[in-house]
Design goal:
Elements lengths: L10 E4 L2 E7 L17 E4 L1 E2 L7 H4 L4 E9 L8 E6 L5 E6 L2 E7 L5 E4 L9 E9 L10 E5 L5 E5 L8 E2 L3 E6 L4 E11 L2 E10 L4 E7 L5 E6 L2 E6 L13 E9 L2 E10 L4 E4 L2 E4 L2 E2 L2 E5 L13 H14 L3 E3 L7 H10 L2 E5 L7 H8 L14 H18 L5 E8 L8 H15 L5 E5 L16 E5 L11 H19 L3 E5 L18 H15 L5 E7 L29 H17 L1
Helix pairs in contact: 5-6, 7-8, 8-9
GO molecular function, one term: beta-glucuronidase activity
Family: Belongs to the glycosyl hydrolase 2 family.
EC number: 3.2.1.31
Length: 593
């Protein structure tokens, strides 16, 4: 799905700001049918959970409603009028006045509706968006809903971050011509120093297509005609990690020789390859340094914020990071575009987290359930997972920063049924995008020799907590155990390994001269221990610390005001580990340059 934009033939209105807000109520069975009778207003984009002091809103399970008036620009007569929702967690429905125009399941990817027949240029309409935060065994991510003795509905879920809900990303009103560029897929290759840009364009109706590629100065470097076109760029400047270079591709739809639509797309010319145990970008071995991150800030929850976007990337540059994983869901498109422009490498992950019921049982002491079964994670969840993959690839396939698809985080890959669940999803991902490697993130409870799916993937990502959840406080034993396991993965598969999570919970200001868990010194010592092992295992091609910053989780004694494994606090203050990482990673960056 192409992101709406302003061009010579298109216009765009951002509908962010304060909207009327209300929880679903049996007293108002059709909240879209009239102006919401509510004193509450909620900002878009933002999660709604932390905005208000009423615990009923924070703990609400079910539908919530946003509403505002929107005026269609009078100059849009003759164009199609589109409403686009960048994300509605986890299910969304859109009404124009009292007409339902769109519904979508999946909380982190966009959806849109053509509302041309329901609005009039120059006139206002009432826009109502409902958001449902419920998770079940048929959703991605999964969850269950319990009914308490007092009748309250309580959401339980299996992932270790707070189930923020609402309109966390922007809502747009867009115009586009009746005949328009509907989709485009760009794949780049190299022949010596010549860049090959292959462009496949889909138009909404019968029209000719013209593609023009310009360099960063605006000079035309190639043109081609046709829906399937190839542009050759002599002496191409490559998109490189840490040194982004973007060309601009302009696509024009023509009817009888007249341009009826124009759509522009940044293009980074680069190649990706897995060769043996190496991960290559532009034919050169690449070593990932960086983090698993979260879209998480105080008050906003998962609401996108450009100020935090800029500051987080500044901190990643300061610390020497060259990459991150979108743990554990697709991030806002603005994040991906920023990574494109600034040369940050991205492992793009689906929201398939929590597909491991045994892990939750092990943490809580509850009876362990089989993960892969008709009554737990079954055919319906697999179908939802496949749809997420289709939508993720459709949204992010043209970002040069995205170098790999991660289809799941910490599944029960050692349980019977895992292979039957994942094999068709891996095949689907490769069919959707043959140009990128496919990975998954392996959980510590499924080590080499017990995991049933790792051979299906191009790269094996590992989350390991030696020195924290095991060998707590005993870093000598942790170091031996970690190296033994990594050597086993290296020997068994001969594929690139990336440590996508490692670290220790740390309270800022807690200090100790001993290996004392929760102290800042211990967090640094754990990371140092991992790094010694990383440097001894050739197949290890990357390290991404868990986590970039502290983040909110569900309530309970297992987490105290959230997960504290960040090397930055939730408000982005560095812990001691951040300075230690900066020393290591900036030295590695300097050597690479």
């Amino acid at each position: 799905m192409l992101k709406p934009q302003t061009s010579a033939t298109r216009e765009l209105v951002r509908l962010d700001g304060l909207w009327r807000f209300a929880l679903d109520s049996a007293d108002v069975p059709e909240p879209w049918a009239a102006p919401l009778d509510t004193p509450l207003e909620a900002p878009v984009p933002a999660s709604y959970n932390d905005l208000f002091t009423d615990p009923r809103i924070r703990e609400h399970v079910g539908w919530a409603w946003y509403q505002r008036s929107v005026r269609v620009p009078r100059g849009w007569a003759g164009d199609r009028v589109i409403v686009r929702v960048d994300a509605a967690t986890h299910e969304g429905v859109v009404y124009v006045d009292d007409v339902k125009v769109a519904e979508h399941v999946g909380g982190y990817l966009p959806f849109e509706a053509d509302i041309t027949e329901h609005v009039t240029p120059g006139a206002e309409f009432r826009l109502t968006i409902g958001v449902d935060n419920e998770l079940t065994m048929e959703t991605i991510p999964p969850g269950t809903i319990e009914v308490a003795a007092d009748g309250r509905r309580v959401q339980r879920y299996f992932h270790d971050f707070y189930n923020y809900a609402g309109l966390a990303r922007s809502v747009w009103l867009a115009s586009r011509p009746a005949v328009h560029v509907d989709d485009v897929t760009v794949v780049t290759e190299l022949e010596g120093t010549t860049g090959i840009v292959r462009v496949d364009t889909v138009v909404s109706a019968d029209a000719a297509v013209r593609a023009t590629l310009r360099d960063a100065s605006g000079t035309v470097v190639g043109t081609a005609d046709g829906a399937s076109a190839t542009i050759r760029v002599a002496d191409a400047t490559l998109w490189q990690p840490g040194a982004a270079y973007l060309y601009q591709l302009t696509l024009e739809a023509l009817v009888d020789g007249e341009v009826v639509d124009e759509y522009a797309l940044p293009v980074g010319i680069r190649t990706i390859e897995v060769r043996g145990a190496e991960f290559l970008i532009n034919g050169e071995p690449f070593y990932f340094t960086g983090f698993g991150k979260h879209e998480d800030t105080a008050v906003r929850g998962k609401g996108h914020d450009d100020a935090y976007l800029v500051h987080d990337f500044q901190l990643m540059d300061w610390i020497g990071a060259n990459s991150f994983r979108t743990a554990h869901y697709p991030y806002a498109e603005e994040v991906m575009e920023f990574a494109d422009r600034h040369g940050i490498v991205v492992i793009d992950e689906t929201p398939a987290v929590g597909l491991n019921l045994g892990l939750i049982g092990g943490i809580t002491g509850a009876p362990k359930l089989a993960t892969w079964s008709p009554g737990t994670i079954g055919d319906a969840a697999q179908a939802a997972h496949a749809q997420v993959l289709r939508e993720l690839v459709a949204r992010d396939k043209n970002h040069p920063s995205v170098v790999m698809w991660s289809i799941t985080n910490e599944p029960a890959s050692n349980e019977e049924g895992a292979r039957e669940y994942f094999e068709p999803l891996v095949q689907l991902t490769r069919e959707l995008d043959p140009s990128r490697p496919v990975t998954f993130v392996n959980v510590m409870m499924a080590p080499a020799g017990t995991d049933l799916v790792a051979d299906l993937f191009d790269v094996i990502c590992l989350n390991r907590y030696y020195g924290w959840y095991v060998n707590t406080g005993d870093l000598a034993a942790a170091e031996a155990g970690l190296e033994t396991e990594l050597r086993a993965w290296e020997s068994l598969y001969g594929k690139p390994l990336i440590m996508t999570e490692y670290g220790a919970d740390t309270m800022p200001g807690v200090h100790s001269v001993w290996d004392q868990p929760w102290s800042e010194e211990y967090q640094t010592a754990v990371l140092d221990m991992f790094h010694r092992v990383h440097d001894r295992v050739p197949a290890l091609v990357g390290e991404q610390v868990w986590n970039f910053a502290d983040f909110q989780t569900s309530a309970g004694i297992f987490r105290v005001d959230g997960n504290k494994k960040g090397v930055f606090t939730r408000d982005r203050k560095p812990k001691a580990a951040a300075h230690a990482l900066r020393t290591r990673w900036t030295a590695m960056r300097d050597r690479a340059s």
